[in-house]
Amino acid sequence: FSYLIFSVSSRTMAGDSTKLLSMIRKLDANDPTENWIGPYAMIKTLGQGATGVVRYAKRRDARIVDPKPDDEVAIKIIDLAALKNKPDERKRVDREITILRLVDHPYLMKMHDLIQNKTHKYMVLEYLPGGELYDLIMKNGGRLTPEEAFKYFFQLLVGVAYMHRRKLVHRDIKLENMIRDANGDIKLADFGMSCEMPPGGKLKESVGSPHYACPEIVKGDSYDGYQADAWSTGVVLFVLLTGMLPFMAEDTNVLFEKICKGDYRMPAELPDPAQDLIRGLINAKGSDRLDVDGIAKSKWFRSRIPRVTPAQRKIFEAEFPPDDDFAEHLHNKLLPPSGTMKRI
Question: Which residues form the Protein kinase domain (predicted)?
């Protein structure tokens, strides 16, 4: 696309600029949005929803050598007219923008910029070419190696801990919202359901995805956002280790009944520490669920501590500082002698 633009420009620089603009816009005639937004050249459409499209784009001044993080981006284009009679969708968009402005973490999707005109909002997001973790698992026949499962859970835990330390909850944690970057690391995305925890500590809005929703949300009760995230995190762990969802039913009412009862089968082949951690998260009683610190202190987590890089050590310590004997012991396991480190 950029080559075509350059070729057209060089031939018509002294010609009809209106004709040039028309030619540029015809390069993607099926997309109603313009092909230039701010410093970004639109390349292709990645997806389309009820209120707009997501497009892959590049900065016009992108460098081949020493590229900047926002040289390649995904631009979520929100049609304001489509939101006019959809208050719930408008609320979700506004909430996502608010949360993205508050967070800045290696395991959370980043928003580089927000551009707006009279008809559209353009959310300039981090481009993650690896796709959804869900698709990777399905491609592998529903199975990950134990090392891969721990890596993705480790990164999810640290990203969620970052949010919880700042009184933010995600409320839609699922494999489809765990997106892989070019290095194969995951970033938690889609903050349309996220919010700040209120002073009273309880939320009432029923949000999220059915297979990952906790009993309180399914019942329509008020709930603790941290505990809701803990349940969803447990469901993710279950899938990472088994390749299956813990709660499955064709009928939604049957599914919700199973969720409310905490009725699922624990595979006997899972090691006891993994089973204990899953039970500590997928617990029908919200107040009995482990928080992020409880997860980090669990036997399964400690027993599978990887050999991490100095950069990963810094990310982990920002949310789990070694301020007591246990944490010091944990970090000693996390950080082997120099020269023996490897990427997880």
Answer: 40-301
**Can you give the pLDDT of all 344 residues of the chain as single tens digits?**
232 222 333 333 344 444 434 443 444 444 444 688 888 999 999 988 777 899 999 988 766 555 677 789 999 999 999 898 899 999 999 999 999 999 999 999 999 999 999 999 999 999 999 999 999 999 988 889 999 999 999 999 999 999 999 999 999 999 999 999 999 999 999 999 999 999 888 999 999 999 999 999 999 999 999 999 999 999 999 999 999 999 999 999 999 999 999 999 999 999 999 999 999 999 999 999 999 999 999 999 988 865 667 887 889 899 998 865 555 555 565 555 444 433 33
DSSP output for 184-231: S-EEE---TT-EEPPTT--B----S-GGG--HHHHHT--B-HHHHHHH
Where in the chain are the domains? 31-126, 131-304
CA dihedral defined by 80, 85, 88, 90, rounded to 10 degrees? 20
> Domain spanning 31-126: which superfamily?
Phosphorylase Kinase; domain 1 (3.30.200.20)
Beta-ladder partners of 180: 131, 186
Which tokens sit at 341? Answer: 């480190």
Quickly name the fold that domain 131-304 has.
Transferase(Phosphotransferase); domain 1 (1.10.510)
* Pair 175, 134: CB distance under 8 Å: yes
Question: Is 293 an active-site residue?
Answer: no
Cβ–Cβ contacts within 10 Å for residue 185, how many?
18
76 is in an annotated binding site: yes
DSSP string, 44-99: EEEEE-SSEEEEEEEETT--SSS--TTSEEEEEEEEHHHHTT-HHHHHHHHHHHHH
